[in-house]
Amino acid sequence: MKREKIMKTIIFVVVLLIPIIYSYFYLKSYWDPYGNLTGMKIAIVNLDKGDGEENQGKEFVQSLKDSNVFNICEVDEKEANEGMEKGKYYATITIPSNFSKDLNSASSRDKRTAKIVYSPNQETNYLATQIINSAVKTMEMDLEEKIDGKIVDSLVNELEDVPNSLEKTSDGAEEILDGSKDLNTGLKKLNDGVETLNSSYKEFDKGVKSASKGSKTLNSGIKEVSSGVSDLNSGADELNSAITQINSGVSTLSSKSDTGITTLKTGVTQANEGAKNLNTGVTSYVDNSTQIIAGLLQVVQLQGGAKNPDTQKLIGSANVFLNSGAGNTLKKGSKDLYDGTKKLVKGTNNLTTLSTGITNLQSALEKVKTGSKQLKSGIKTLDTGTKSLKTGSNDLSKGLVTLSDSSSKVKTSLNTLETGTKNAYDGSTKLVDGVEEFDKEIKEGIVDTKEQLKDLTGMKEVVENPVEFETKAYGDVNSYGIAFTPLFLSIGLWVGALMCYVVMYYDQKNRFGILGSHSNNKFLQNLLYILIGAVEGIITGVLLKMGLGYEIENIGLYYFASALIGVTFMSIIQCLIRNFGDVGKFLALIILVLQLAASGGTFPVETISEGFQPLTSYLPMTYSIKLLREILIPTASNLKGNYIAILIGITVVTLIITYIVDLIRNKRNAKTSA
After folding, report:
1. pLDDT by residue (tens digit) across 192-205?
2. Distances from the Cα of 635 to the Cαs of 473, 626, 627, in angstroms?
3. Structural domain that includes position 661
4. In a domain, 439, yes or no
């Protein structure tokens, strides 16, 4: 009897502990699965040959080892394959031989994508591969951030060289500016010189035209002089003929008488008049010719004609005429001739002493004869010079015509040159202004660039970690298990309520008295089972908190909710089994399965099959889970009262249904007994 009582107590206690047994061991085993990944072996095959002194593959393997997330096993390809076949490794990560070179190519023109071959061993455990996949994704992001940082670091280094290049450009711009200023100054002087030259050339052009016109007049005058020289030559011949006659007359005079003297006197008088006219003509001719030639030389030399070959010939002929003394000789000869004829005249007037006069006459005739020879020679020289002068004058005239035409062209060219130099000067001024502005902009650009480059300080670190996610949880969940506690606690209480009725209500030996199916006091029995549900809830809540050690802000609300959930689930199980018997048991299991699938305890309701989503609002565990979540994971929401009200409502409704059914059944039994 005593043993049976002990066994009954043990069974009762075990039934009470079913919720904690069910929920505790599940939660304990899965409390923090992500904190125990170090036992999972991952094979690493590093084939990277490196790039120079750098081996990114080796650094990557070391970083994985230092992270202490997985058990990193560095092996060769053969050992990795064997380990995968035997299920030793959950995954293999293979780093190719060109890994470092491909990574470093990101900052060069020949960019290549670095690859890491990841082979998860899904045969071992599917969820394990999902966990590793998430970790590998994190590794990939870390590598991308590292590469981005390297690229930005390289770019920043190159950008830091930009101000130095700009400074060199600025130095070059200053040299260009100095050269432009020198060019501008030179063009200013050139423009001023061209303007002066163009202004002076106008007077030169006028002189050339005047010289050309004067050369035509000179040429005409030389023709007249040449004609006069011919006449003078004829006169000289006549004079020689007259002198010959005089000599003949003197000779005759010596032998003849008064007739000869008279004839002599007449001839002398005529000779004197002719000599006088000849002297006047020669003097005038020589003086005029000398002045004309001297003036011509001045004109030619002033106009720069000495560079013209034709003009040089003319100048040579003129110099020969002026320097030969032919004019003076001619003048002297004509004067001597005239002096001699005057003496002849005088001698003829005084014939008292005939022999003396004849002697003087003969002496004068000798002088006249000498002068006549000199005159003839001078006239010959003068004729030669006049011909040369005429030829030179013709050449000068042609040269001056050519010079006049060329001078017009030169003047036109000078006008064009003046316009061009002015435009060049204006353009040079604009160039100087532009280069000054360019140099100013470069200097300002250097200053701005240096200031802007300061913003790039620390850019590598920013790119490697561009966004920092600061976790401010809406409700603090410090472990994987705390998130599942509402689900497993609810499941435990549901299973506990179900086991109470399976074990105690249907006990064939009727060891639990009023709790058994044969009890007649159903009202009291219902209250006892409701009390057992509350006790199960409180015991489960207490032992879970003690065993798992999670913190709760409102401990009273936590125990009240646990008791309420136990009562609610017990009232539902009680309603199903008391009213439907074995079908009720089946319905209780079906509802449990539906709640596992559609109450949102594991996956979000939105992610489950559309066929299950409409059931969520009608499942009691939906509200028990939400209530426990708000208690265990405090948030700003205040829906606890709603969830408590719903659970109380479910409890009241199921209890009323149970009592109504019991009343109906009792009345029916009473009628049957009567």
Report:
1. 777 777 776 666 66
2. 9, 12, 12
3. 480-673
4. no
